[in-house]
Amino acid sequence: MMNEVPVHVDDADTILIVGDDPANLGELAKTLEGYHCRVLFARNGAIGIEHAENDQPDLIFLDVTMPGFDGFETCRRLKDNEKTLGIPVILITAIAEKKTLVKGFNSGAADYITKPFLSKEITARIRTHLLFNSAEKQF
Questions:
Q1: Is 60 helix (H, G, I), strand (E, B) or coil?
Q2: CA nearest to 133, candidates 15, 2, 4, 3
Q3: Closest-CA residue to 42 (of 29, 33, 27)
Q4: 4 pLDDT more than 60
Q5: How far apart are CA 27 and CA 101, in angstroms?
Q6: pLDDT tens readout for residues 28-64
Q7: What pTM did the predictor assign?
Q8: Edge-to-edge strands of the sheet including 38-42?
């Protein structure tokens, strides 16, 4: 039997969700709030970047399809910003095509999840990125 990973979802104090359809992201928010995370919302990339700079979330979920600049451009801007470059970004997409996923990783995303969301998948991915980010900060 493997040891339990020492980092838990509860270790994430603040998670930012950036997307233009709050109803569509409601299941994600519900899952996160179940872990007593402080969940912040931003309706577009510009507001998301502002929240990321000011609130320094532990993790960002970023919808790929948004008006204005899309999730790829938002991610690039987050990774080009000294204040936000260390925050892991998980893209949210309904499109699981390889070229879309590669474009997301090239924009600086750490991971992606596809719609519809699975609660256990969300939990596993958050734990993975919190553990990785925590280990990276120690070096």
A1: strand
A2: 15
A3: 29
A4: no
A5: 22
A6: 888 887 777 789 999 999 999 999 999 999 999 999 9
A7: 0.82
A8: 38-42, 14-18, 59-63, 89-93, 111-114
Residue 7 CB neighbour total at 10 angstroms: 18
| Burial (Cβ within 10 Å: 0-12, 13-18, ≥19) of residue 71 | buried
Based on the number of CB atoms within 10 Å of its own CB, is 98 exposed (0-12), middle (13-18) or buried (19 or more)?
A: exposed
The answer to whether the Cα torsion of 111, 51, 44, 16 is positive or negative is positive
Task: Please list, in sequence order, all residues whose beta carbon lies within 8 angstroms of the beta carbon of residue 73, skipping any fewer than 6 positions away.
Answer: 45, 107
Residue in this structure with the two tokens 């104090």, named with its chain if needed = 13
In angstroms, the Cα distances linking 116 to 81, 94, 96, 127, 135 are 30, 8, 12, 19, 30
